[in-house]
Amino acid sequence: MSLRYLKNVVTLELSEKKCIGCGICVEVCPQMVLTLTNGKARIADRDACMECGACAKNCPPAAINVAAGVGCAT
After folding, report:
1. Residue 5: what pLDDT?
2. Residue 22, by phi and psi: left (phi above 0), alpha (psi -120 to 50) or beta?
3. Which of 2, 6, 48, 60 is 20 to 30 A from residue 28's alpha carbon, by CA?
């Protein structure tokens, strides 16, 4: 189970339309916030996100947006 920080304040956004289903975001997320379901990334546990930015930085089609460094990762 991942740690929870502050509820409903995470800047994490995912465009399922842009997602190509590569799964890199799932692999690089240290908090297991994202999952791959039916060939697309999904946000499984938004409140566990520490806004480190690893998912957004490694997403080839730029389907993920997060204000890295503003949350608990600061």
Report:
1. 62
2. alpha
3. 6
